[in-house]
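Homework help board

Subject: predicted structure for assignment chain

Our instructor gave us this sequence and asked us to write out the predicted structure in token form, then describe one feature. I got the tokens but I'm not sure how to describe them. Can anyone check?
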Amino acid sequence: MAQSGARRQAELLRRQGNKAYERQRFGAAIDLYTEAITLCPEVPEYYTNRALCYLKRNDWKRVEEDSSRAIELDRDSVKAYYMMGRALLERQDYDGAIKKLRKALDLGRVADPVGYMVEEIWHYFAKANDARWEEESSKRVCRLQELRETCVEALNQHHFLETFDRGAISEEVADAHSERLEHLNQVFNTALKDDIPADVPDYLCCKLTLDIFRDPVITPSGVTYERAVIIDHLHNVGKFDPVSRKRLEPDQLVPNLAIKEAVQAFLDEHGWAYKT
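My token output:
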């Protein structure tokens, strides 16, 4: 009986906290959610609500702590994985952020594929991937530049010794040296191309949005669409395939795992600063 009373009181505190949050009184909301947690420490929603307040205050350490606790209590909490990913992104743990945000995306696509939160999660998922790629790209460029300088120095040293042995600079030796330097530059310039944004192939883009696939699904007619877009079409326009015009129900949509993997491979190779 006392337990049910504590839960009722905790729920009242949660609702009061929600009202305070809506008024942007984040400190008051945190206090109310904390009281609810004290009464019922096993309810994951109280932790995610408080984490959202900390997020609004950019208190990322506490965001991470509350999100972690919420995940322990509920392994299917989209909000907890999302906010944990945001916190890890802020402290530049890009691999950790990508892992948590990918989990949030997977859960969110099942729970509400056309919801605003999937778009928001995707935004930070892309941002984390881009930050990781930029970091790795910068390291690659630095290593290549150091290697280029070492190779140029070695070629110049070889040219000096070759000239010294001959006792004079000949046109033949000078031309050979220039040719080696040119070839060397071509090799390194080719290597650096991997760090230049690439065009996205058409087959990795949705026919309706013209943007790179995020959650591709295939219809019985063999056409692949972005899940949120085709579901929105089915709900608001009509239950038919936009291309084949054949009748189409939402439960006929099947995840296109091959395209999904191809998109991930493209983004891993070329980064998220791609050209559309």
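Reply (TA_rk): Your tokens look well-formed. For the description, you could write something like this. The radius of gyration is 28 Å. That's the kind of observation they're looking for.
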